[in-house]
Amino acid sequence: MAVTGTAAVVLLLGRLLFGGVLAFMGLNHFMQTEQLSEYAEYKGVPAPKLSVLASGAVLVLGGLGIVLGVFPTLAGIVVAAALVVMAVTMHDFWAVPEEQKQDEMTGFLKNTVIAGGALAIAALGWQNWAYAVDVGLF
């Protein structure tokens, strides 16, 4: 089944917004590597700098995959998995002092809701998309 007509345009706009923000989030990992690495180290992440760079690459490549329609199912699943791991390891609101709980819960919920959106995109990747590179689409 193909996504066509108005639905295709709406899906394209959603892909541009969603994937574009993911890619920007990933670029931020490269532009603020030192600050994010220090925070990752504080949270006990092994190989913090490598972890920041790897997660940045996942977000950039996953976001671009969603925008362009290149392996969107794979992109959505990998992005969702990475965001869930980041939510649990970096935004452990249940284990921080009271004055940090709200900030960490906000980060946790942000990552979780974006992971849900990435899974929705992954499910849509099983259909043919208009306005896509059409690589990896079924």
UniProtKB/TrEMBL annotation:
The chain crosses the membrane at residues 6-30, 77-96, 108-129. It comes from the Archaea. Keywords: Membrane, Transmembrane, Transmembrane helix. One of its GO terms (cellular component) is membrane. InterPro entries: DoxX. It is a multi-pass membrane protein. It is found in: Membrane. This is DoxX family membrane protein. It comes from Halospeciosus flavus. The lineage of its organism: Archaea, Methanobacteriati, Methanobacteriota, Stenosarchaea group, Halobacteria.
